């Protein structure tokens, strides 16, 4: 009888488990699924484990990662992901990517969602079964599919876990109206709860290669980023930042300066104007509700 072939991730788990056994002892009760912080190990032993792992997987793991992925199975998956961390990019027309020698516009665009309008978003998002931030994400993602003329894309999203970016895939091919969009987007967004995501600093350390005719879009909530936006602007090409203020929301949109800022400013303004159009089309249903 042929023995089952061990998968690469299982081999990785076994290697990490060996490190724990060497440092803690084979009788320490370590398994691939137990939280190793529940074993009562002191910080010195943890440092020894980290030093051994760092030798095996240089530049692929930090001490912070061990706290973020506190089981051997999760840590093994994280290390495996580092080897292929290059993030997927979304193709857009060439005129969005290249400056044409025209007078450049600012690569940053801001608008404020005032209290009355925010209340409308809150009411409409409640009807759609999502949060206001998820509602805004849906429209941002949808508008990107319009300019790329492709119904499927990945939007890198940071609205659930501190400093952790999730890859959210959306397919709007069957979408007929905004209500359907919000349903599909909500389903896509909630897959983020099933993935640990990538820590910002891990992406910074790995680095991202620029794409000539494709973008990596990011949508994030400022409250979930501890180090400011500088690192994010280095990693991602087009960004929508949501900042919660006392009675309103500030939306900041950004593209890399090397790109066609005229085209992207038009995109940013279209997103701003699109919100008003959605309010008008959905307000009757909200008033009936």
TrEMBL record:
This is Acyl carrier protein. It comes from Paenibacillus amylolyticus. Keywords: Phosphopantetheine, Phosphoprotein. It comes from the Bacteria. SMART domains: PKS_PP (SM00823). Residues 7-83 form the Carrier domain. Pfam families: PP-binding (PF00550).
């Amino acid at each position: 009888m042929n023995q089952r072939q061990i998968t690469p991730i299982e081999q990785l788990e076994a290697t990490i488990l060996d490190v724990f056994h060497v440092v803690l002892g084979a009788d320490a009760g370590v398994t691939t699924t137990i939280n190793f912080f529940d074993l009562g190990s002191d910080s010195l032993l943890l440092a020894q484990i980290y030093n051994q792992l760092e030798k095996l997987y240089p530049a692929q793991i930090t001490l912070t990662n061990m706290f973020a992925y506190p089981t051997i199975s999760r840590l093994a998956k994280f290390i495996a992901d580092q080897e292929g961390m290059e993030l997927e990019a979304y193709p857009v027309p060439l005129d969005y990517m290249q400056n044409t020698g025209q007078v450049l516009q600012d690569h940053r665009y801001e608008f404020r969602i005032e209290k009355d309008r925010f209340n409308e978003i809150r009411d409409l998002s409640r009807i759609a079964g999502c949060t206001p931030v998820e509602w805004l994400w849906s429209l941002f993602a949808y508008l990107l599919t319009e300019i790329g003329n492709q119904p499927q894309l990945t939007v890198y999203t940071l609205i659930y876990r501190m400093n952790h970016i999730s890859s959210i895939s959306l397919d709007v091919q069957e979408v007929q109206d905004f209500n359907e969009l919000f349903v599909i987007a909500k389903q896509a967004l909630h897959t983020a709860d099933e993935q640990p995501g990538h820590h910002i600093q891990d992406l910074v350390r790995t680095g991202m290669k620029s794409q000539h005719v494709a973008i990596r879009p990011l949508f994030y909530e400022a409250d979930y980023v501890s180090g400011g936006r500088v690192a994010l602007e280095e990693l991602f090409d087009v960004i929508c930042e949501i900042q919660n203020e006392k009675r309103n929301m500030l939306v900041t949109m950004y593209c890399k300066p090397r790109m066609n800022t005229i085209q992207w400013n038009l995109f940013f303004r279209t997103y701003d104007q699109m919100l008003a159009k959605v309010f008008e089309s959905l307000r009757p249903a909200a008033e009936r509700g």
